[in-house]
């Protein structure tokens, strides 16, 4: 029987050598030490043997079981190592290949334009003020000298949410809120933000766009202060060679009111397709704060004066970068955005 176990060892080695997976290893182990293995035949013979023989057979059986366990464990390590090596070979990276280029993120052209205007205005002593995009009729119109039924309301076709609330049509309500909170003290602010009007989207119009409005209130503020401020702002944005002109206009919340044009930066005022042959670009509206607006927000128009101005961010960006369609700003096309 001892010789039989020695022969079985040779068979075990040979079968384990040919085993290629954990499943095959377990099958070999069950075949030689399981309930239906040749080992059971040896165990059956022990009942017929004398005590000395049973002792020798028991020792041989235990050694055989240990042998099988060790051989299976050793072969399992070899199979595992081979599988790991195979995976490493399949996942090997060629470190000599060039790396992938990842393009860096950039500021949106509208964000760049806003930051530039903010930097210029902060350098002139302005503070930045913000307000809600959902406004009341009171702040959006009435405190800006636009009472109910005023014809100028039709110029700003609005998104009303109910009889009281609407999406703001300009950032001027921020000015009204700041004026009410100031309690008659001097103000020097700019108000950037989104505004909404019911308009058909095309190359030059959008139902949603962005504005920056400025407001200064103090004693002895004049139109000369307004003109000097806007001249400096426009030249910082478009260049020192820029010429500026002021044309009379009308806005309900300013009196007198002006519109501001700058010479075409492409043709220098000679006329080109960009400026439609006029040599000029209209860039913003402005004026002296209307006495009614001052009075409704707690200022005495006899002792306090102010000026206000408002410009469209998209319009400025289109002029600066030569963009001919406002919709490019909102389509998130990487081919457009990566140019900036």
Describe it.
This protein is α+β, with helices and mostly antiparallel strands and 340 residues long. The protein is 42% helix and 19% strand. It has two domains: 2-90, no CATH class; 109-337, 2-Layer Sandwich (BirA Bifunctional Protein, domain 2), CATH 3.30.930. It has helices at residues 2-18, 22-33, 38-46, 51-90, 109-123, 137-140, 172-182, 223-238, 291-296, 313-321, 334-337, and strands at residues 127-128, 134-136, 165-167, 187-196, 208-218, 244-251, 254-263, 280-289, 305-312. A seven-stranded mixed beta sheet has the order 1-4-5-9-8-7-6, sandwiched between helices. Strands 2-3 form a two-stranded antiparallel sheet.
Chain-wise SSE layout:
Blueprint: H1 2-18, H2 22-33, H3 38-46, H4 51-90, H5 109-123, E1 127-128, E2 134-136, H6 137-140, E3 165-167, H7 172-182, E4 187-196, E5 208-218, H8 223-238, E6 244-251, E7 254-263, E8 280-289, H9 291-296, E9 305-312, H10 313-321, H11 334-337
Parallel strand pairs: 1-4
Antiparallel strand pairs: 2-3, 4-5, 5-9, 6-7, 7-8, 8-9
Helix pairs in contact: 1-2, 1-4, 2-4, 3-4, 5-10
């Amino acid at each position: 029987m001892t010789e039989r176990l020695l022969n079985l060892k040779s068979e075990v080695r040979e079968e384990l050598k040919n085993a290629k997976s954990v499943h095959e290893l377990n099958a070999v182990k069950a075949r030689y030490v399981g309930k239906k293995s040749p080992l059971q035949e040896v165990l059956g013979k022990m009942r017929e043997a004398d005590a000395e023989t049973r002792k020798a057979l028991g020792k041989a059986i235990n050694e055989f079981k240990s042998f099988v366990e060790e051989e299976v464990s050793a072969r399992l390590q070899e199979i595992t190592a081979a599988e790991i090596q195979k995976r490493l070979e399949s996942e090997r990276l060629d470190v000599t290949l060039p790396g992938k280029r990842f393009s860096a993120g950039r500021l949106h052209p509208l964000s760049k334009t806003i930051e530039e205007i903010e930097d210029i205005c902060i350098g002139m002593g302005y503070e930045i003020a913000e307000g809600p995009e959902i406004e009341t009729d009171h702040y959006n119109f009435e405190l800006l000298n636009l009472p109910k039924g005023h014809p100028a309301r039709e110029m700003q076709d609005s998104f009303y949410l109910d009889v009281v609330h609407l999406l703001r049509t300009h950032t001027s309500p921020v000015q009204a809120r700041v004026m009410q909170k100031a309690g008659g003290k001097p103000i020097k602010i700019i108000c950037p933000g989104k505004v909404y009007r019911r308009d058909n989207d095309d190359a030059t119009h959008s139902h949603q766009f962005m504005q920056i409005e400025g407001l200064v209130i103090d004693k002895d503020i004049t139109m000369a202060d307004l003109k000097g401020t806007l001249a400096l702002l426009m030249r910082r944005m478009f260049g020192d060679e820029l010429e500026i002109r002021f044309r009379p206009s009308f806005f309900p919340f300013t009196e007198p009111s002006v519109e501001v044009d700058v010479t075409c930066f492409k043709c220098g005022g000679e006329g080109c397709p960009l400026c439609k042959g006029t040599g000029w670009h209209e860039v913003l509206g402005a004026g002296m704060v209307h006495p009614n607006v001052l009075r409704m927000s707690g200022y005495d128009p006899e002792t306090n004066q102010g000026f206000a101005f408002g410009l469209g961010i998209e319009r400025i960006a289109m002029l600066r970068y030569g963009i001919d369609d406002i919709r490019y700003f909102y389509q998130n096309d990487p081919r457009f955005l990566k140019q900036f």
